[in-house]
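Bumping with the actual sequence this time:
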Amino acid sequence: MVDIFIPSYHRPTNLMTCHYFQRMGYDMSKLTVFIDNETDDIAEYRKACEEYGCNLFVFDMSEARRRYDYVHRPAKSRRSAGQARNMFHDYAKAHGIDFFCVIDDDTSNYQVRVMGWDNYRRTATLEDLLWMFEETEQYMRQRHIGVFAWSQTGDFFNPCNINWYRKKVMNTTFYLHPYIYRGERGYGDDDTSQFVGILNQGLFTGSYGVGCVLLQVQSATQAGGLTDLYNETKLLSKAILCPIQYPTGVHGERQIMNGNRLHHKIDYRYLMPKVLKGDGTVDNIPWDTYPEDWPFTNEPKRIKRR
């Protein structure tokens, strides 16, 4: 079974992802919850993880901040999910893990979306999850891809979108070493910052538009997690960070159909060079096609680690 890493903050009594995988019959020893050493509920997390039978790792928040590229003025709390997710890579290497999946702590279900159908067929079973985990790992290892993902239900507002591949990467994200190291930056919206940065550098990434699809929940309204940051920044972190980083390919806009809130808008025509398709043996999909391109990191080249 694939190792699953779960970043969490102030949700020790509401670890929905742990509850979901325990209910599904997953090997709970493959789940690790990550929290920082500045939170005031470490004891509560230890108790919850013992009850679920999963692992808990407490990382050094000062080290996470030191290694994190804020891009813009940090929020007052100086914390983000990206800091936690960047720390996963050291943990994985220390434990001999070269392939792992990152899932938010508020996952309640996955649904099955089938090629050629414009809606969801049924709720995913454990067998569905295990098969998709295996296929995703095999695909990434064969093609030397550092980051790939599964889609979420919020990606399909247009029910006629039945493409198998999407450029977006977030929420159920898979990482393969040694092709990536510390990929997230910003101060919020750092998962988007990661995948648009990967695409902007000409590396291949994306997500399946079929198969197991995450049943999305409203993360900005739940207690704990990033809710405090969202309230502090009025969701501006989702609107301005990527336009600051990639002004040619990303801009901010008001989403009239989504409560008139500010959000980013990605124009892939100007964000990224096109992936060159070859004869099956020659193309630039593998991340190690050019030695200078990998491992992908947000750290200066002089301290890049392999």
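The tokens above came from a reply further down the thread. The chain has one domain: 3-225+280-303.
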